[in-house]
Design goal:
Layout (H helix, E strand, L loop, with lengths): L1 H22 L6 E6 L5 H14 L4 E6 L2 H9 L5 E4 L9 E15 L10 E2 L8 E4 L6 H12 L6 E5 L2 H9 L5 E4 L10 E4 L1 E2 L4 E8 L9 H8 L7
Parallel strand pairs: 1-2, 1-3, 5-10, 6-7
Antiparallel strand pairs: 3-11, 4-8, 4-9, 4-11
């Protein structure tokens, strides 16, 4: 409790300094970006490049973590702007959606399974499944955990991992199959294919959040750059 309060106080002090600089007409010295990497692989590069060109004299600091980690950082002033998954209660923060990532079945490229254009849930009963670890309890992890249990596939889980890159690496090593976000199709030298599964249509959102009291994150130029990343129709 003491540590959490101390971090919040230190964050408030730093935020107060930035507020004073903003009132005095001085530019912020650092823009702190939080990201749920690797979900932001498709948008972060363009965003950082445009921020760097727009504010060449400002230092950029990028940190990664879970959505809850980033929200706490936004609330205590340690992060200026965060790329997060949508949450039911975002408190006093502001948020807008920029994309929705669809999850598909990843199969090793030379596997006979890769010859099929789509699957049914029943087709997975004889396969070893690679799943995200339940310990993180993110929306996607809960969804797939419940789906595997509903369809009697929990016993097929042979490997687990904490992130998407590890999952597709295990699939590429021919150790099993797993559900991966659609953006992994753009990974260089990938050794897997993505296929739809009937009855599984998971789309997880990605958006941008900021603290309305943070003078850095609330600047129109930065928010407009983030808004420009929104993908039409997604």
């Amino acid at each position: 409790m003491f540590y959490d309060r101390a971090v919040r106080i230190i964050g408030d002090v730093g935020l107060s300094a930035e507020v004073a600089r903003s009132v005095a007409g001085k530019a912020a010295r650092t823009i702190k970006i939080g990201t749920v990497y690797p979900a932001t692989t498709g948008v972060l590069l363009g965003f950082l490049a445009r921020i760097g060109r727009k504010f060449p004299d400002v230092a950029l600091h990028v940190t990664s973590g879970s959505t809850s980690d980033i929200i706490r950082g936004l609330e205590n002033g340690q992060i200026s702007l965060g790329f997060i998954r949508p949450v039911e209660n975002i408190g006093s923060l502001r948020f807008f959606s920029i994309a929705h990532e669809r999850y598909l079945l990843a199969v090793e490229k030379t596997s006979p399974l890769a010859l099929r254009s789509e699957f049914a849930i029943e087709d997975l009963r004889e396969e070893k499944i690679i799943a995200f670890s339940r310990q993180n309890l993110s929306y996607s992890e809960r969804y797939f955990s419940e789906m595997f249990e509903t369809h009697g596939l929990s016993g097929n889980i042979a490997y687990s991992c904490d992130d998407t890159f590890s999952l597709v690496s295990l699939v590429s090593a021919s150790l099993g199959i797993g559900f991966a976000p659609e953006w992994t199709r753009d990974l260089p030298d990938r050794n897997f294919e993505l296929r739809p599964v009937r009855g599984v249509d998971l789309k997880i959102g990605l958006g941008v959040a900021w603290n309305r009291e943070d003078p850095t994150a609330s600047r129109d130029e930065i928010i407009d750059i983030a808004r420009s990343l929104a993908r039409p129709g997604r």
